[in-house]
Design brief:
4 domains, alpha+beta, ATP-dependent protein folding chaperone, 30% strand, nucleotide-binding, Nucleotidyltransferase, domain 5, ATP-binding, 9 helices
Amino acid sequence: MASSDPLSDYRVVVGIDFGTTYSGAAYGIVTEQEVTDITTWPRQSGFRYPKAPTISLYNGDTRTLAAWGNAARLERQKAPSNTNYLLLQQYKLYLDDSLNGVFKPIPGGFKPVNVIADYLREFHNNVLTEMKRGFAQQFEGQYRYCITVPAMWSDKSKQAMRDAAILAGIINEDDHHDRLMLISEPEAAAIYCEKTCEQFDMKDGDEFMICDAGGGTVDLIVFSVKMDSEGNRQFKESTKGMGKSCGSAFVDKRMRKLLRSKLKKLVDNIPPAALENMMENFIDTLKPSFDGTDALFMNLPLNLGTTEHTNPDIGLDEGVLRFSVEELKEKVFEPVVQEVLALVHKQRQQTHNLKAIFTVGGFGASQYLQSRITEEYKRYNIKVVTPYRAELAVARGAAYFGMNPTKVTTRVPRYWYGIDITNTFVDGIDPEEYKIVRRDGSIRCDNRFSVFVKRGEPLDIDSCVTQKYTTFYPCPTECTFFAANTEDEPRYTLQSGVRKVFHFEIPMPEIPDAVEGEQIELIIKMYFGEVELRVEAVIRGQTYRVVCNFNV
């Protein structure tokens, strides 16, 4: 049963940017419309990065979380090598449907949703502790939340994120549904850029692109600006957002491979702790500063266990390892950056009046990525801007969105959405194996795709798609929804490019004057303009909030 707490009772909005490599948070008191960052995390080192590492350390014997964030890495490094620990990283990627089969299962048989929930539980506890140090303390218990998700995620992935938040205790299952809101990461970043970036001088009809390059995913959406009657900017999605798993974690993966190739010429067995020390140096310091013009240098850690301090073959001189600009470009940065540039190019092709590209996220703050995008688009007179504290843009934007959820007025569906129905059978077009005869004697075609939402056709956020169907009393009705990524409207639910996305059951209410077998009108209402799908069913004036099962 849904909670009766009105949303107006929630005085504070907490924005959570759960990321592949780092996670951040910000909060704002609704009446003040200002945002405060959470930048203090347990076991931070001298380099105080304002986000917490998305890392979890599990005790392999008890299968319980032993440490999270900075502590997870530190505890693993100092533990004896025979300690039964599992260090889990980048588990957000397991929610990306497009990567199914790319990664091996999480070690230890852990389920992604449970690992994410364990992390979020500790992360959230730290956020609450920090909030209580400020003015938000007086509103304890009056918090609502906005969690960001990649634009490329499926509805099933979004539901998994909501499930993890409930398991983590961030909200309760019987809380008002909108106590937890989801927003796409580029949308949150757009709100932040408009709110705080001086270069955001967009006028009515102008378009701007958000390139949210994080640790795991790179998400892009182009928005057009529409001025309302009071002179305030509102945003409309003007392209189908797209994304790909080609974030900075893939730069790290290539750097790790390059490091191994060099270090194995010094030692037969590379100590894991030594390799991790060098990778931390790369991730925290060297990667953000690399701009494609100067070589990078890295000291060999003492725990590498080598007596060799000079080796020209690998660029080692007196204990300092040199990485040339050429090898960093060719082997580490450029292959990943090329994937990002391809995404930017595809988005630009869909635009008409693009004025600016805003790069946000941890990878978005990379000097090399910024320089490459600028190099590609300066000839088009398109400015490339990285806002202040780009790594916090998504968390801050989520908090701002929670205080003003109507900033984005239109979204563009990435798929065709519809249901499986029977329709009039058309000889010569429909396959014979789909032909069925109903109880009233009519000849129908089974497995027809009834379109609710057209791919690429803009939808207002409050738009409701309504379809009327008939069913027979007193049978309950089951409904499975399908999504298609085909260019043309799909005709059948079994054709290539169509997949099931969720399923629900609609109970038949008791109707005193109805007789068995009587046709009953069924109205299905779907709200596709919101970040999450919302479904309602109406039978004889009774409205049901439908619970969707995305595990189909």
